[in-house]
Amino acid sequence: MSEYVKELMAEVKAKNPAEPEFHQAVQEVTESISIVLDRHPEYRAAKVLERIIEPERVITFRVPWVDEQGEVHINRGYRIEMNSAIGPYKGGLRFHPSVNLGILKFLAFEQVFKNSLTSLPMGGGKGGSDFDPKGKSDLKIMRFCQAFMSELFRHIGPNTDIPAGDIGVGGREIGYLFGQYKKLRNEFTGVLTGKGLNWGGSLIRPEATGYGAVYFAAEMLQTKNQTLEGKTCLVSGSGNVAQYSVEKINSLGGKVVTLSDSNGYIYDEEGIDDEKLKFVMDLKNVRRGRIKEYVDKYKNAVYTDLDPQMEYNPLWNHKAECALPSATQNEINDKDAQNLVNNGVFVVSEGANMPTTIEGVNIFLDNKILYGPGKAANAGGVAVSGLEMSQNSMRLPWTREEVDNRLMMIMKNIHKTCIVNAERFGTPGNYVNGANIGGFLKVADAMIDQGVV
Ligand code: NDP
Q1: Do 321 and 366 belong together in one domain?
Q2: Does 191 contact ligand 1 (Cβ within 6 A)?
């Protein structure tokens, strides 16, 4: 670690105590950007990186709501408006009991670089609540979403801040949030993305993050003249990103053998084909059940409970060529990364945000595998959110093919940006540096143009 990174990190840790995920995200980016700062002292003089690290605005609020039994609940709501240099704040909302300020700051920070990489005019933000939607009735979910939006509405708008979904926030929640925003503002606008098709949503938005992560994996493979055809893939999670990653891998001739949720994972050696995926989608999106139920239906598959005492996750310890972590942050530690490499995995495309610890990332980089970090590999979701905003502004919907082609082009361009910048700054093939630098340059130049604000 250079002196500059050490000093900056000491300051970040002192100013933002007890936010380990935020420290981790900042450290990874800072290590990449220090190469740029050495060549471009003007960025250092203008303290651009220091300014990017400090959110433009952090909003926290009380979310009181009453359930169907009349019991009062109080959750905490957040919106981090991180950076608006290249466009209005844009980023998802996460509803999960683990949500806290540090996690949302790391996500908002990552979002700034990711949104810049898409080449669309979007700044970075993130928000959410410690509300746990798991096992809750539709009525409870609706009441919570309405209470959450009753405060959030005054801070967002189609030209200010446009939230979307993330963990625990899918089509159902976006619907309730949009309904409440519309009622309070008396306006039908594109203030949220991930909307239903009948009321301003875009085709391919639900598929976009998973499809995009697979397109990114395919682009990385292309550099070795290979494709996904016949490749075995490990996928974690079983939510939005995981489901559409499986769908796209299947359509490109690959085979997915794992899926998981926060209780455990399934291993299906024969592969999760389209029919089995349909079962998973119904299980997770309609019946809202647990992944364990997969083995009741498909007897050859094996279910393993998650054991938090174990030093590694057995999901990452199977023979395969590709891995697409699509559940949550830090789900691959150094032991998992080593297991992946030992088992023959040479392509990792991150559907989730920061799913690999810094030690794990270093193992991928040392072994020179094709490693696509989340801010590049999972940018397809926010990219199609950007396309949803364009369609809302034009009041004209595009076809499925049109959106999918644009998504594919955006993923190809992000891949190229990573390759070009990694090479330009002396670390060819390093997608971490390529993504961080590519994302940084556009935001940094815009911040310099706009003065110290
Ligand atoms: P979903 O809520 O649809 O699914 C999340 C999945 O991950 C579920 O299977 C969930 O299991 C599992 N999971 C969540 N938390 C944990 C945990 N602590 N330990 C183990 N498993 C866990 O979310 P998404 O698919 O939308 O998001 C997945 C990842 O992708 C996140 O990192 C998100 O930030 C990232 N992402 C999402 C985008 C999008 O467009 N949706 C865009 C870019 C990135 P369970 O049901 O048991 O909670």
Answers
A1: yes
A2: no
CA distance linking residue 82 with residue 91, whole number of Å: 10
Is the distance from the beta carbon of residue 340 to the nearest atom of ligand 1 less than 6 Å? no
Residues of the chain predicted below pLDDT 70:
none
Task: Please give the Cα distance from 329 to 334 (Å, whole number).
Answer: 14
Residue 326 Cα to ligand 1 middle (Å) = 6
Is there a single domain that holds both residue 307 and residue 340? yes
Residues classed as catalytic: 126
The sign one gets for the Cα dihedral 410, 354, 237, 200 is negative
pLDDT number for residue 422: 98
380 lines ligand 1 (CB under 6 A): no
Q: Which of 105, 99, 78 is nearest to 328 (CA)?
A: 99
* Ligand 1 pocket, residue 34 CB under 6 Å: no
At residue 283, the pLDDT reads 98
Mutual angle of helices 20-39 and 101-117, in 10-degree steps: 40
Predicted TM-score of the model (pTM): 0.98
Q: What six digits make up the tokens of 54? A: 């400090």
Backbone phi and psi for residue 168, each to the nearest 5 degrees, phi listed first: 75, 0
How distant, in Å, are the alpha carbons of 55, 173, 181, 345, 401 from that of 146? 26, 10, 8, 44, 34
Last residue of a domain, one of 188, 223, 256: 188
pLDDT on residue 2 = 84
Q: In this structure, what are the phi and psi dihedrals at residue 447, rounded to the nearest 5 degrees?
A: -65, -40
Query: Is 326 part of any domain?
Result: yes
Burial 263-288 (b: 16+ CB within 10 A, else e): ebbbbbeeebeeebbeebbebbbeee
- Which residue's CA is minimally distant from atom 4 of ligand 1? 239
Residue 229 CB neighbour total at 10 angstroms: 10
DSSP string, 290-344: -GGGHHHHSTTSEEEE--TTSSS-GGG-S--SEEE--S-TT-B-HHHHHHHHHTT
| One-character DSSP codes across 189-215 | ---SSS--GGGT--TTHHHHHHHHHHH
- What's the CA angle centered on 207, arms 343 and 84, to 5 degrees? 100
436 sits in which H/E element? helix 431-449
Is residue 41 included in any domain, yes or no?
Answer: yes
